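Troubleshooting: if your tokenizer reports a length mismatch, compare your output against this known-good record of 160 residues.
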Amino acid sequence: MTKAHPGMTIGHVHLKVTDLDRSIAFYRDVIGLDVMQHYGDQAAFLSAGGYHHHIGLNTWFSENGPRAPRRSPGLFHVAFLYPNRAALAQAFRTALDAGVEIEGAADHGVSEAIYFNDPDGNGIEIYRDRPEPEWPRNAQGELEMVNAPLDLDALLLEAA
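Known-good structure output:
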């Protein structure tokens, strides 16, 4: 079995959307990404920190199309990793202020995560990782992730 190089990371996600302007507004105003480039009137590339793109959005095959059925195969969610709990709290506050409906939240032991959807029903996770020494492990030292409730009110107290 071939293993991925340990230095590999996931560079970007490209999503089919039905309304490019609406999706740009969501990823810019709710998630906080910068528009790096428009590719004609059917695609755009957005990122954080000046990277060429973390998210590509396009309407090449999906403009004005129907939402994919919830129980159909496809991307479950794209996850945005924040550097610390305060940054996650601020991102959560921004989503709430934008009227985003929160679908769920969880403390996974290794991370704290909040889940919602973009305007096309694509799943979004915003999360922060705990430092690796704090990750829950069993007696053999193996990782033991959990799915515990996340105290969203306490998290919001950390928003700047």
